[in-house]
């Protein structure tokens, strides 16, 4: 039985099969181990490996880069030479690859960015998930932060306490032991000195605190002794302790580094003055160094040596006078004027040392004897004179000695009488023909003479003022003849200076004579308007007025130029000047309706109703078919209670002008008077002529709504929507009518249809959100708001609603996002101001309310003014309230949901901007 059993190890004695390689199946072929060091056997050849792989059905591996590397070719072309043709071909292929890559790059990068954004949206980073919470940390107070509990041990495992011990050094142990011990023997040095010298290593430590206390005690005792009456030396001495401490504080303590620097600098300066003793700055620097080091005696000695070596340098003498006392400085400067008698600085320094005015005069007159051509000395001498007559005599002598000094001529002219001043300026003009200041002074003098006498007739005054224009023109010509060419900017600066100094006619004359210089003919209007705006921005209204007056003479038919001049007079002038400008404007531009309306309005605001009617009658003659003028006449009569005249004017206007706006105003007028039947009849007639005018359908529907005839109102709005599907207001009115009738579902359907016909309209989305809120669906309102913000991502109205929809802690972060997305929209800005108001940050809220009405477009939103007034009523002063009302009246707003609803209410017809603003502030909540 045993012989029949198969032997499992019999294969070991069998011969290996053909092409067998040990370990090839597990990849262990051809390696050498440490035990095989020596003549190791070779691995199987490539043919053997390929044959074995073929038997197992494996495909041989092919190197993918075999034919792609030109520098390491080992394929078909391994033996060829890399020539210039090959290099050129490679460059061509590379260029083709770059072009193909560039062609697909934009699409590839866009696809990659889209995939990345999609991935980020699905799997946001942890940092993005906590952005709102991080922003919320900004409002946490210190008390709230301190009240946050520390993280405890939640693992329910006992932790081993950190009980570590440290080895105390032997020196500490020995020191503590020695503190309580007593020495019972003396060392060798103590025995030699009889025990009176304490050994240095006795173990005692220096107590610097006690040393400081002892020093303070000694200082206080010394101060007490000095401040009282001391009889130690037999004399009484009293010292101010505060002054003594101040002097101690003034002592400069220098470090070793600074002392070393001073020593090195002293050596350098010493070498400098010895090698070059005639170099004055070296002596001055060496003296200043000694002064800085606190060695005044050495500094004075050095500067004295400098005066001896450099007697002709005024700086050395001035430095010497500075370093010495006042009496010594007088002696030094007396010596200085003997060596440098032509130095103005030395003479002025000598005069400054004198305390008596007469002594100063003597010094300066002595200086003028030596330096008669110094303008500065003459000016200082004249300034010391208290009598105008003496100053006039001095200046007369000064202009004789220095005839080219413009300052002295002008000073003399100011001291003379007007008649003699003219002679002085004529002499100055002949002496200095290149000075424009003299010509300007002459013009100002003529203006002063013309306006000095209030009893002069206007004709005489105007003739004398015309000489100012002629004088400035002659001055510009003379200066040009003498090759003195000032630029336009320089002349305009001189004009502004004349205006600020109280010479408006001279300013106007300069502008007239020089405004056309260096300007191309086709660029004149734009350049002059720019000059006027820049002058107005600097507060130089007279210069701006003169520039616009000259521009109007050159371009009398430019209506926007007249409008600009009228706005300037309205802002800075009075009613007379504004009436004069508007009268000239309608004379030169009779077709400009805006100018006629401005003229009539100013007359009406001034309380002169007949004059306003006269202006409108002239406007009718010039513009018989102008609807604006017809409507202005109707408004004028209606505001003054002439309702019959206003109705007749509207009838005539419908006949003459026959515009849709006149028909609309006619219907509104009848509705305001309570004539609903006449109003409906007027609307029906107007709709037959203008079926595409949406406001007629609105008026018709509102009248039916006032009469509680909801079916007729619904029909009017439906007809309007059918005729004008792009008008958003009609859709909103129709929706609100359905809400008023209790049909919120139909209102929702109407707004849905309106959004399909008018996509990306913020008003429709806001109204849809309002419908959901009024229906009580807060969740639906939030969903609707999110949809609206997706379609209108930059809408300020929707962002404002989104801020208020957030809970109070998240509103601040939401407002930051809103400001970024809406680009500082006025509605968002006003909302941010209200947030600050709610947080009691008064000044910030006031600033943000001002920002919400900063631009011309924002000032037209009346609701912002209402919120600001409501805020100032609660937290501001009466001055703040008055300022808001004043600015609102000047802005004349017309838009805003609450503002329009109150301003167009029939009960508020005839009320001004101030009354409407107060009603809006009361209605806002």
Supply the key terms.
mainly alpha
How would you describe the overall organization of this protein?
The chain has 925 residues and is mainly alpha-helical. It has 48 helices and no strands. The termini are far apart. The model is unreliable at 199-203 and 229-237 (pLDDT under 50).
Quick synopsis:
With 925 residues, this protein is mainly alpha-helical. Helices cover 68% and strands 0% of the residues.
Topology diagram in text:
Elements: H1 46-55, H2 84-122, H3 126-129, H4 131-136, H5 142-146, H6 170-179, H7 188-192, H8 208-227, H9 241-250, H10 256-275, H11 280-292, H12 296-309, H13 314-323, H14 326-339, H15 344-353, H16 357-370, H17 375-384, H18 388-401, H19 406-415, H20 418-431, H21 436-452, H22 458-481, H23 488-500, H24 504-514, H25 524-537, H26 541-554, H27 559-572, H28 575-588, H29 593-605, H30 609-622, H31 627-639, H32 643-656, H33 660-672, H34 676-689, H35 694-706, H36 710-723, H37 728-740, H38 744-757, H39 762-774, H40 778-791, H41 796-805, H42 811-822, H43 826-838, H44 842-852, H45 862-875, H46 878-891, H47 897-903, H48 913-923
Helix pairs in contact: 10-11, 11-12, 11-13, 12-13, 13-14, 14-15, 15-16, 16-17, 17-18, 18-19, 19-20, 20-21, 21-22, 22-24, 23-24, 24-26, 25-26, 26-27, 27-28, 28-29, 29-30, 29-31, 30-31, 31-32, 32-33, 33-34, 33-35, 34-35, 35-36, 35-37, 36-37, 37-38, 37-39, 38-39, 39-40, 40-41, 41-42, 41-43, 42-43, 43-44, ...
